[in-house]
Amino acid sequence: MTRTERATSPHAIIKDRSQSRTGIDRHTPKGGAGPHNWGSLLQERDLEEGALYDEEREFEASAGTNETAVPTREHRSSSVSVTEEDRERALQFRKNALKSGDVDLSAIARTSAAVSVSPPDAVSVVRGSDKLDNGNVVSTLRFES
């Protein structure tokens, strides 16, 4: 049997993966609307109008309400106040935490606020003058300690 005869045999045609087994062409669209052909083209206009109507209602509802302002840094209060004694105990606990056989990760995490070394002194931010740079507003910031 030659190669051509093998390729045209009924068994070879059945196993040929480039041909559809059902006989339906995969490349013809199903006639539906949307990326996955759900729905129909007759409903597409109604769906689009409904979406625009919903968007207008949401916009009108949000225009009537005021957005809540984010509290500034000076109005926030720190919930963590750590004394020197607590800090020393936390440091000692963290040094000896891995020496014992039982490692409690939650206890180590609870002591992280005591040993953090984020800025020791408060840093104030002073807003400078706004400048125009090619039509764009550029804000300059100065840091004072």
From TrEMBL:
Residues 1-41, 58-87 are annotated as: Disordered. Residues 19-87 form the Hyaluronan/mRNA-binding protein domain. It comes from the Eukaryota. Pfam families: HABP4_PAI-RBP1. Residues 1-28 have a biased composition (Basic and acidic residues). This is Hyaluronan/mRNA-binding protein domain-containing protein. It comes from Hermanssonia centrifuga. The lineage of its organism: Eukaryota, Fungi, Dikarya, Basidiomycota, Agaricomycotina.
